[in-house]
Design a protein that fits this description.
about 675 residues, seven-stranded mixed sheet
Length: about 675
């Protein structure tokens, strides 16, 4: 079952499987105005305002409740449907709710599926993954291509539908098969007398198909070299059952059946991918549902038939595609696709382990996910036009999913820092009611997230320092602490004024000085955290749209710049002549993802002919973008204020990174 809905500014969606009490899950439905079943909730946000009174700080944070768009998707077991419907009746019927809509309406199922798939691929960077059963990390996440089209979607339900998707509203069912998940379930029930789908897969995970299948070596005594067939290749599914007079175990028969159907689907998918010249092939449907045994057999089949040229891609949220699509279709009048959306880690369950040996309790659930929350970002996000190759750009310097030592250190580091964050949160709202109580709830929530990530580092895609910081920010926001540093003034260090002995850890200072002797740059884009610069070129200062740590936000930078301009004629003139522009970057993170920037900023960069990008600070220039390749000159500047990280990079604490890069074409 998949239900979905929402109000004029948000939504909830229901699928299968929850672990929290129903009242806890369904409480967010109370504010719904549109219900499909995706619902909107009221979320507190904090605006910046100024006070001109003498003696007041430069700026203050005032609390103002707003309606913020958020999509809530919940998977629950069928046993809870009456509880859900009772809640709807008690809280929504005869209220302000204007629309009640569900996927049980005659919405086109395939249209909803495609809409949902497009939505997650566009808005969740680490949505797609490759499954590698025997690797150290069973999930290998793919950074989403800037242009998600075209792709092939193999939806394996009772049968198989093969859909070619070419654009947002352009798709075609180009093929399919009657041999799918229903075939596996039906034949499996006849062979094993097992009626439950999950139990059948559990049997298959314990089985040995070679006891039932006839292999190439069973026929030829080894490999068939002239045809390129290895000895372990299946020559005939269930072939041994016709020639061997013995009983076969349920486990072995289930495994043989799974291989037979997966290989058939895999070959079919490969043929259609080759026919239509497509390399991106996504698999979904109840046959997949995050089960390791199905993902492994599908992956093996695709690798075999394409000789490794095509990868089988799976989706973190494939169980929600229909529900998401149903909501989007029901909310078309609000045009939800005009916005960008981001996964809220505080309210999302994340991807659980699918390996029975890692988490045997997990497979008792009827699905991999419990809850998913998506926040609407008020500004549309796009790539920085100056990325050398947007398709290969990876923001993060270190993937903690792969680097075990780094993962252990940073998880320990964030947990150790938790008490300090709690104290800052309370201090930022010492006059607000229940601030201490809310801060303690934040502590519990974030600590639980960290503990989950120790065991499931792949829960929200690739684990990075950026995702750990973002998760903390999301948890702070959930308990109404959007800016714990609002009452703290940080005296920033400026590396240009510090007389550290050179050479620095990364030292291109001399090359930069030589460059300054040449012609001025047309326009410099400066990603700031809390510093300003001015030279004889046009300057675009790009700062955060929302608060994160002690980084300056765009609204704060506007105030600071106006006050500086009143004292400095150079700044005053630059502002007046529009040679100094202040633009928000679309982020509320201490780090920087150049593939998700404010569309207005991208337009300014393009129109002004920007030929220099300056990225400053540990979060933006070290944790992210250290290896980013740009099509123009760039400076990456930072003081490394973490001893472990400094040693990792071959330096000491407070080592300076001054990285000046010129693209090869510009050098020539």
């Amino acid at each position: 079952m998949a239900l979905s809905g929402g109000v004029d500014r948000g939504s909830h969606s229901m699928d299968k499987s929850i672990t929290l009490p129903p009242d806890e899950i369904f409480r967010n439905l109370e504010n719904a105005k549109r219900f499909a079943i995706d619902i909107v909730a009221k979320v507190r946000s904090f605006d910046h305002s100024t006070k001109e009174t003498d003696g007041d700080p430069l700026y203050e944070i005032s609390v103002q409740e707003e309606i913020t768009a958020r999509l809530h998707f919940i998977k629950f077991e069928n046993a809870y449907i009456e509880t859900c419907l009772d809640f709807i009746k008690d809280h929504l019927v005869n209220t302000e709710t204007k629309v009640i809509k569900a996927t049980v309406d005659k919405e086109d199922e395939m249209t909803c599926l495609i809409k949902g798939c497009n939505f997650v691929l566009k808005n969740i960077p680490h949505e797609a993954f490759v499954y590698a059963k025997h690797a150290d990390s069973e999930f290998r996440f793919q950074h989403t291509h800037p242009d998600i089209f075209p792709y092939l979607l193999i939806n394996i339900g009772s049968g198989v539908s093969i859909v070619k998707v070419e654009a947002e509203d352009k798709f075609e069912r180009i093929g399919g098969s009657s041999i799918g998940g229903g075939t596996f379930w039906g034949l499996g029930a006849l062979l094993t007398k097992t009626k439950r789908f999950d139990e059948l897969l559990q049997l298959a995970s314990k089985g040995q198909h070679t006891n039932v299948d006839m292999l190439v070596k069973d026929i030829y005594g080894g490999a068939y070299g002239s045809l390129g067939l290895t000895g372990d290749l299946i020559a005939s599914s269930f072939g041994k059952s016709a020639t061997t007079d013995k009983e076969f175990s349920k486990e072995d028969m289930a495994k043989s059946l799974l291989h037979m159907i997966s290989n058939d689907i895999g070959q079919l998918a490969c043929l259609y991918a080759k026919l239509h010249n497509l390399t991106r092939v996504y698999f979904g449907g109840f046959f997949i549902r995050g089960h390791p045994v199905t993902m492994h057999t599908i992956t093996y089949s695709i690798n075999f038939f394409t000789k490794g040229e095509v990868q089988a891609l799976f989706l973190r949220h494939e169980g929600y595609l229909g529900a998401i699509g149903a909501f989007l279709k029901g909310a078309e009048e609000d045009n939800p696709n005009q916005y960008s959306w981001g996964e809220n880690y505080a309210g999302s369950s994340g991807l659980m382990s699918v390996s029975p040996e890692l988490n045997p309790v997990q497979r008792a659930r009827s699905g991999t996910f419990d809850m998913l929350e998506m926040d609407r970002l008020e500004r549309q996000l796009v790539n920085l036009p100056l990325l050398q190759d947007p398709t290969s750009y990876i923001p993060d310097t270190v993937d903690l999913t792969e680097d075990v030592l780094a993962r252990e250190y940073w998880l320990y580091c964030f947990e150790e820092a938790l008490d300090g964050v709690v104290k800052r949160a309370i201090a930022s709202q010492k006059d607000q009611p229940k601030a201490v109580e809310r801060a303690e709830k934040f502590r519990q929530k974030y600590r639980h997230k960290l503990q989950t990530l120790r065991h499931q580092p792949f829960a929200y895609g690739s684990l990075t320092v950026r995702s750990l910081l973002d998760t903390r920010e999301h948890c702070l926001n959930e308990f109404n602490f959007p800016d714990p540093y609002s009452k703290v003034y940080i005296e920033s260090l400026n590396i240009f004024h510090l007389a550290w002995e050179r050479p620095w850890l990364v030292d291109a200072y001399n090359q930069w000085i030589e460059r300054l002797k040449g012609p001025p740059h047309k326009c410099a884009l400066f990603f700031v955290d809390n510093k300003l610069l001015i030279r004889g070129t046009e300057v675009v200062l790009a700062s955060n749209s929302g608060p994160a740590l002690n980084d300056v936000t765009n609204s704060e930078l506007q105030i600071l710049t106006e006050r500086i301009a009143a004292m400095d004629p150079v700044i005053h003139t630059a502002l007046k002549e529009d040679r100094l522009a202040l633009v928000q970057n679309g982020s509320s993170s201490p780090c920087l993802d150049l593939s998700r920037l404010d569309k207005v900023l991208a337009t300014v960069v393009r129109e002004r002919g920007t030929d220099l990008v300056i990225i400053e600070g540990m979060g933006r220039a070290i944790h992210t973008n250290y290896y980013a390749m740009l099509s123009c000159e760039s400076l990456k500047l930072a003081v490394i204020k973490n001893s472990w990280l400094a040693e990792r990079l071959g330096g000491k604490i407070f080592s300076v990174v001054f990285k000046y890069e010129v693209p090869s074409k510009a050098q020539g």
